[in-house]
Design a protein that fits this description.
This protein has one helix and 13 strands. Mean pLDDT is 81; it is low at 40-45. By secondary structure, the protein is mostly beta strands. The termini are far apart. It has one helix at residues 38-46, and strands at 2-3, 10-11, 61-66, 72-75, 81-85, 97-98, 112-119, 122-127, 134-136, 139-140, 147-148, 154-157, 160-167. The strands form three sheets. A six-stranded antiparallel β-sheet has the order 4-3-13-12-9-10, with no helix packed on it. Strands 6-5-7-8-11 form a five-stranded mixed β-sheet, with no helix packed on it.
């Protein structure tokens, strides 16, 4: 046990912080962040681009276009969350979009690989701690941190690659 030099509370060996008062054990002091000078904050803020809030076109359908076999997988808009991966009936694991037929197993797709959600007029892609990773435009996604999908993006589940198409609905009555 480690005894806190500030409050005397005993914490487990190897703890970095006192569970009672928050003292950082390596320095014996509280963890703090030094404030930036106001002039520095203005310079930083002025150098940042305004955030963008791209939304999917109203009523758009998300389509995953296979790069190697050119097959289209339509993500059902009626579902607010779609699980992608490989079905494993023996283990009782079922996904909404089974990538087994796209050689998912040999191309490194996990059983529960990623999720696409439709939230606030945006399609979001999220890796579910897959073994071989989920990539958006060559950038590996951090597990459980969603990223916005845009028309023309490239998505890779392990080594299985798709192009994103956001298909706008046709004229009224045309679907």
């Amino acid at each position: 046990m480690i005894k806190c030099p500030t409050c005397g509370h005993e914490s487990m060996e190897g703890a970095l912080l006192c569970g009672n008062c928050g003292t950082y054990f390596h320095t014996g002091g509280h963890l703090t962040t030094d404030p930036l000078e106001e002039s520095g904050m203005q310079q930083v803020a002025s150098g940042l681009a305004a955030p963008t809030y791209d939304t999917a076109p109203t009523g758009a359908t998300l389509i995953l276009k296979g790069v190697s076999d050119l097959r289209d997988i339509v993500v059902p808009r009626r579902m607010t969350s779609v699980l992608l991966g490989r079905n494993d009936r023996l283990a009782g694991l079922l996904v909404d979009i089974d990538l087994t037929s796209q050689e998912g197993e040999t191309l490194g797709v996990s059983r529960r690989h990623a999720r696409i959600r439709f939230v606030n007029d945006r399609f979001l892609l999220e890796d579910l701690e897959s073994l071989n990773g989920t990539f958006l435009n060559q950038r590996k996604l951090v597990p459980f941190v969603p990223d916005v999908l845009h028309d023309g993006d490239e998505v890779r589940f392990g080594s299985l690659t798709f192009k994103i198409t956001l298909k706008e609905p046709g004229p009224a009555g045309g679907g």
